[in-house]
Amino acid sequence: MLEKFSVTTVLITGSAGGIGSATVRAFLTAGHKVVGLDLKQGVQEAGYEALVLDLANEVELKDMCKRLEPINHLVVIAGGALPEEKSNLPVTDLPIQAFRQSIENNLITAFSTIQAALPNMLKAKGDKSITLTTSTDAFVSYGLPGYAAAKAGIIGLVHSLTGELGFHGIRINAVAPGDVPTPRNQREWAHRPEWYPNLAKQNPLNRLCTPEEIAETFLALSVKLTGMTGQILTVDAGGLVSKIPYEEQ
Fold first, then answer.
1. Which residues fall within 8 angstroms of residue 60, CB to CB, at 6 or more apart?
2. Distance separating alpha carbons of residues 179 and 210, to the nearest angstrom
3. Are the CB atoms for 56 and 49 separated by under 8 Å?
């Protein structure tokens, strides 16, 4: 039998991406109303409202949140590493603007989304939560300095807001995915065919976690694990705590 919870409204940013689309479907399957924000529409499902919005536009973001019905759960997935960082430039050659943009895309927009949604969430009844997206790169990373720093900042943001939001009955947590075979990642890995199998071989489970598994984690932290707040949940097939050696092909 499908497990059901009280029907609530969920706001998801980055809803058109691989993990975002899977997360939209997970919440819809569980019976929730979902509003998605992204630069493109993405999923088209009954019970889902897709809004095209640039999260960097803080004025429009706040105005949109004011017009929505009360939001119980906010899931912030929008973000990602910039191509300049993925090119593995030496730190001395990485444009400072690329570093700034990574912080803007991954940390500042998460904070501004919380600021915009919070007045609306305070009006909602029942259980309320905010779930952010960090990354295993926040703990261990080679390269990607702006992205890794921003994702580490997400962890600090969760910890710093736990007490204040708790007074309002709002839980805040974050999910830390490892490498996930999203459509975008798979397109990038196609240029390095040896990369994907080696990523999987390093993990104790000998595979990567799927977008659907990450989505189920967002669902659990948002509506099921109601006693959890201030927590960072890693979903990476065990890769962060135990790397299996492999030979380069």
1. 53, 54
2. 9
3. no
Catalogue the E-assigned strands of 124-193.
128-133, 170-177
The whole-number average pLDDT for the span 58-75 is 96
Q: How far apart are CA 71 and CA 43, in angstroms?
A: 20
Burial status of residue 245 (CB atoms within 10 A of its CB: 0-12, 13-18, 19 or more): exposed
Q: In angstroms, rounded to a whole number, what is the distance separating the alpha carbons of residues 159 and 138? A: 14
Domains, the chain, with CATH or none: 9-182+211-235 (3.40.50.720)
pTM: 0.91
Q: Which two tokens mark 89? A: 């430039």
Per-residue pLDDT band for 48 (boundaries 50, 70, 90) equals confident
Evaluate if residue 120 carries a pLDDT over 50: yes
